[in-house]
Amino acid sequence: MTGAPELTGPAAQDLNSFPPGGLAVVAGSTGAIGAGIARQIEASGRFARVIGLSRSGSGGVPFDLTDEASIAAAALAVGEASKTAPLRLVFDATGMLHEGNIQPEKSWRQMDPAAIARVFAINTIGPALLMKHFLPLLAGEGKAVFATLSARVGSIGDNNLGGWYSYRAAKAALNQLVRSASIELARKRPESLCIALHPGTVESRLSEPFARSGLTVRPPREAARLLLQTIDNLSAAQTGSFHDAEGKEIVW
Ligand SMILES: NC(=O)c1ccc[n+]([C@@H]2O[C@H](COP(=O)([O-])OP(=O)(O)OC[C@H]3O[C@@H](n4cnc5c(N)ncnc54)[C@H](OP(=O)(O)O)[C@@H]3O)[C@@H](O)[C@H]2O)c1
Asked: What is the pLDDT of residues 84-108, one digit of tens each?
């Protein structure tokens, strides 16, 4: 895929910890953070190719997190492409906080089974299926990373405010999936990592209704640069971890 040129701000992360010439996949490449990630991987020059996955399929491969057959078909296309360039990075930038009538709950009174199921379908089950179909495609030797965007509010140890019941719970469950998958991955691909990341508060459709004044809100480009820097700095010993965009570990 080709992104808009990067004209201002600090240079993209060089991603030198990855062997050169690999394949990268960005799931949710139409999202604010996902688009930034795809552009910066391309700008790094370290990867031979970046494939974007999105619901519209715009500029890449179509998929929907709620349709496993579409995820399997996307994995088949990526598997074909990985025959010429080994798959070294899968960045899952999908997720949902609000959609139509679904809004984060302020009280237990607002919990609705259909809304909770939808929040889990997008934030937990979809990424679990991405792990199922894409982890086996990661390169067998050299650094390879599956990273998924979780959220600090998914940390149970850090939950001092309450509220946002379903989103918090869905991201906490995602974190547990990452941890389990990292243990299985370590047995099969000891140089690979499976990690959860928190991007900070970033300008996007997702955060727009909730970005309170006084809160530091990052442009997606800056968030993407910091997230890729964090990935670049992590080694296989740190698989199964949860980090923020500054590279600090977050309590589960
Ligand atoms: N922004 C923040 O402040 C913030 C803070 C903490 C964590 N996060 C996390 O960061 C991630 C990215 O958020 P963002 O701010 O970049 O939001 P965004 O701009 O709304 O992007 C969300 C992405 O998820 C995709 N998506 C949603 N439902 C999907 C489905 N059923 N199938 C396939 N793709 C689907 C969207 O695709 P479409 O373009 O097709 O809708 C879009 O690419 C999320 O996991 C979010 O929880 C964000």
From this structure: 999 999 999 999 999 999 999 999 9
Q: Domain 23-243: give its CATH code.
A: 3.40.50.720
Distance CA 247, CA 25 (A): 22
Measure 23 CA to ligand 1 centroid, in angstroms.
Answer: 22
Q: Which of 55, 65, 227 to mutate to test the pocket of ligand 1 (most atoms within 8 A of CB)?
A: 55
Instruction: Classify the C-alpha dihedral 209-250-248-119 as positive or negative.
Output: negative
What order of strands is seen across the sheet that includes strand 61-62?
A: 61-62, 47-54, 22-27, 87-92, 144-149, 192-198, 242-244
Res 65 pLDDT > 50? yes
Contact 90, 28 (CB under 8 A): no
